[in-house]
Structures
1.
Amino acid sequence: MMDAFEQLGLPRRLDLSEEELRSAFREAGKRFHPDAGGSEAEFSKLQESFTLLSSPSRRLKHWLVLQGVPGDERGSISPELMDLFTQVGSIVQPADELIRQREAALSVLGKAMLEGRTQQTRESLERMQSVLDASIAEKSAAFPQVESGAVDGWQLTRDLAFLEKWQAQLRERYGKLW
């Protein structure tokens, strides 16, 4: 099994900043990039490692597997995330309806009449994105407790995976509203 931490020359720890990851990628890229004497395959593995470690949920899952911690990535999410799930749904559903209406609007006037709702929906998506960002940061702050065995890493993996999935859904809708 590939060790993404080793591939990037990083210590095998969960608490990595975005800057640490980028810096490690740049340094490793100097060795593995095809223009620097590396191969396409080596550089591709490096990019895969960077992508994996850039996601808190995938980084945690990878770390748990490398450490041999038994568990299952499937299962329930924390109860507090159920409230977020409801909030995300209450924003995504109207956004989807508005996207359909915008796509069906055939005239410039028809599209212009939807602009007020479009701006409100964008703002709602941005606010929810901020809530999810904060929740991911809060969950990621527990990484030291996972490393010490005080927190169930697999539960945290599930929670983070759902949060990241919801983030992607919000970004997708936001992009369609431009």
2.
Amino acid sequence: MLDVEPDDRGGSTARPAAAGRRRGAREFPLDILAAIALGGVIGAAARYAVAEIVPVADDGFPTATFVVNVVGCFLLGFVVVLSVDRLPPSRYLRPFVATGIMGAFTTFSTFAVETVLLVDRDRAALAVTYVASTLATGLVAAWLGVVAARSLAARPSGRAA
């Protein structure tokens, strides 16, 4: 059996599959998993804090989820661009922040469930407003994060060359 992996030239290289490994399975470095897990603890705690600070009535607009998802879109756009354009290469930064913190902080599943619950409670117009405003505001927030990071990346770093 052969595994096919990308090579440095943009093509692919076939090599024998590792014994006992499923075809298509990848080994996952434990140090990266630890960075993601640590970030997840931070993101989940922050998500819980926002949910506690921003109470929402059962039949009202899901403000807490809206806030975390929009803030998460901004921060993800900012961090990803900043980590590529401004900061030195890091094996851990993007897994820790983007996958760990932002992955646990933001929540698509809660967004989906809250939308369904609004419809079930005969609040279809509010559900549509919630979906449309979350998508539109999230896209704008991500774009603003990218723009903010690029403007920061364009400034001289003050480091001696």
3.
Amino acid sequence: MSSDRSHARPPKLLEQVRRACRARQFSRRTEEAYTGWIRRYVLFHGKQHPANLTGGAVAAFLTHLADERKVSTSTQNQAASSLLFLYRDVRSTPIDLPHGVLRPKKQRRLPIVLTRGEVALILDELPRPHRLIASLLYGSGLRLLEALQLRVKDVDLERKELTVRRGKGGHDRLTMIPATLCGELQRQLNIVRRQHERDVAEGAGWVRLPAALAAKYASAARELAWQYVFPAARTHLDGATGRPTRHHLHETAVQRAVTLAVRNAGISRRATCHSFRHSFATHLLEDGYDIRTI
């Protein structure tokens, strides 16, 4: 005699969203953002299932974000992308937004470009390893997350090259390591190696790998080559594997350190981590270099 329990229940909505994100190889940050917005959308409408909501419900939520929550343009666009993904790719039921509900265009602002002297003043105020990270943003033209997601295997000191994996647009690229940073990078790699040896001795030593590699090369997650160049201070238990895992340094820690360094350096402009990359590009242009591949 068959039982209803023999039929597996379909996964819950947010699990469906996570599976759809992973099937498309979205980054973990994108997955967290999408599930977060979809959760807020459902709560906004009294926990109604999206199958029972229409384009008008999406419009009401986006209008609430803009008019009452006063969110930024980029935040509202991210929320809209999350909901369109939910209906189009997860539920396979595309919806039509009412006329007049527009995705606002992001305002274009001129980037903050630091002088060479200002860069030096800020770097002098930063502790390690934040100073080395900021130096790579400026000297190698990296974005903050690109620097933090570097693995040991991505650093080639002999050729003075860094390999950026899945940068903006999902593309890999090579960039240079300034000769002045090679010694400090080698010291950082030595610190990572010693820390990894201690982690392994204590029964830890794992890092999270890209999904496809984690399935194909299970043992790679404990190899030195895959450790982050700028690891977090503490390990945590990975929810999927239950293993003690060490992530990379969180970007907010670097952002806070740079904000404090800018203030301590006496610079009145609102410079951020991204200002180092803008300054890198500007200074290369001033020196006559072609920056189209940066």
